[in-house]
């Protein structure tokens, strides 16, 4: 590229380097309402399949049938009552699992002795699905609310522990050295260095935990329950009411999607200081 400049009595040509436009690497700019595109496309395919007869109504009820059934369940109060019961179970199990996972991660992450005692058994539990423990939990706790809450807790605390522990152990050692240099106490070290450093790992674990809570809830509510979304679905299976089963599945999926979206929103707000590929 040549640029011509004119000075009083002098005309010169200066060559400059060509302007090269670099292609942006990475996923690109965020898409507005991008999280809704996948579910909407799934709904469109479902609707087209039902309208054209590709999907048998006896196998999978049409979306408009599910909407009508949902309205009927809301009008007679069954949906609200069962949803409230399921939400209580999930929130109690999730809350207890988060507390247990964080406490164990702190003990194991900040103490070699704690890690030697705790990490091995938790890794063993990680390899055993929580649902495989149901026969033992039923023998120990019966079929009441305690068994259901403990099953959800077991599905929650492991991802919280794993990711929080990993976040603790990956804190840059220079921050630990700085804390020692300025003379921070153990409590101040935990508050100013450990907890902020482990926050990204904890929030990632929380995303897995909320999903695990709903997955565990689906199963435990179909074991001699007398209320809840799973109980409503099991009762519908007995009477061959496919539309009510689909309502329950859609509700579980919506609750899981909304829960994950809430955690992702918290993640973005809490980690604004961190620049990543998704930023």
UniProtKB/TrEMBL annotation:
It is a multi-pass membrane protein. It comes from the Bacteria. The chain crosses the membrane at residues 31-55, 90-114, 126-143, 149-168, 189-210, 244-266. This is ABC transporter permease. Residues 83-263 form the ABC transmembrane type-1 domain. Keywords: Cell membrane, Membrane, Transmembrane, Transmembrane helix, Transport. Belongs to the binding-protein-dependent transport system permease family. Its main location: membrane. InterPro entries: MetI-like, MetI-like_sf. It is found in: Cell membrane. It holds the Pfam family BPD_transp_1.
